[in-house]
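Q: What structure does this chain adopt?
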Amino acid sequence: MALSDGRIAELNELCRRFRIDVLTAVHAARSGHPGGSLSCCEILTYLYQEHMKLDANDAQNPDRDRLVLSKGHAAPMLYRNLAEKGFFPVSEMATLRRMGGLAGHPNMHTAGVEMPGGPLGQGFPAAQGMAMALKLNKSPAKVYAVLGDGELNEGVVWETAMSAAKFKLDNLIAIVDYNKVQLDGTTDEVMPLGDLAAKWEAFGWTVLECDGHDLEALDFCISVADGAVGAPTVIIANTVKGKGVSFMEGKNTWHGKAIDDESFAKAMEELGGEVNA
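A:
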């Protein structure tokens, strides 16, 4: 069933709040990755808060859907969604990048994290392994792997793509957070990806494409991907690095930059948050 206008409004409001909370945590830590966390906000929020079959009170259910954040530097947005889902209190966001708190990249000491996402490219093959195991166990569960476009520079991504197609893993859905900006510049400057849809198609994947900030479009594409038969699906989600904060949007300088007080105040003004929250 398609999302209602009311539900879209609710999810958009969640995204606004999550952006505020993520930037607040990164600012307090004086360290982190704001740009890529903001670009995948709608993707993660839709999956966790609307779509996936996942219950924090039954976290080890073998038939739960899994999400692997292969672009692990976007961990703050993952954490905020896990907190909203009930895996830990929202107040733990204040422990980001502090000793004994939430790590800068996801690890399995954190409730709800299915796979570490540190070295780029490593989460995706783990997601493929999960999908294969679920197939062998005849589980109806799906595995969603969220990748960064800069991450596609890693050779293991394409080894995994070949393997997933070979084994017809139609329970594996990859979502590329295609914001076209990575650490040192644009993807075209660093390592051009060319015709990304054609590449995935050549590797045997069903390819869908949408605006990664449009919840209705994400709902449609992910629902189509869930119904795939005989091949894995990739969704190329066109996004904006730093989405929601004008001076961060499209800027590689905000990939992994600490947020100073002045920039934080400006971001909160744009998002409707409080500087002293």
